[in-house]
Design a protein that fits this description.
Elements: H1 6-15, H2 37-44, H3 48-61
């Protein structure tokens, strides 16, 4: 979840020491469906392709 999840905790912890762009990859704060892990990753946009895309977007925002 974006709210109080691992993304928020990691960004808060690192932001003072390493001021870099951050792109959250997380599920919105809502109830989730049950299903096979791969189906759930597809449904919530958490496949490796979306994660790589988010990393590329954050990388493009860094200062040069």
């Amino acid at each position: 979840s974006y709210i109080g999840g691992l993304c928020s905790a990691t960004a808060e912890c690192l932001s003072g020491t390493y001021p870099v762009p951050v792109k959250f990859v997380a599920i919105e704060d809502r109830f989730v469906h049950s299903g096979a892990p791969e189906e759930l990753r597809e449904y919530f946009g958490l496949t490796w392709k979306e994660i790589v895309n988010a990393a590329a977007q954050a990388w493009a925002l860094r200062r040069r």
